[in-house]
Amino acid sequence: MKTTLAIQSPAPLAPSRLLLVEDDDTIRETIAESLTAEGFLVDAVAHGNAALDHFQDTPETSTFDLILLDLMMPGVHGLDLCRYLRRRSFTTPILIVSAKDSETDRVVGLEVGADDYLVKPFGMRELVARCRALLRRSSRTAHQPAVELLKHGELVLYPEEYCATIKGRPLNLPPKQYKLLEFFMRHPRRVWSRDKLLERVWGPDFIGDIKTVDVHIRWLREKLENNPSQPLLITTVRGFGYRFG
Question: By Cβ atoms counted within 10 A, which residue in 91, 115, 133, 140 is the most buried?
Answer without folding.
Answer: 115
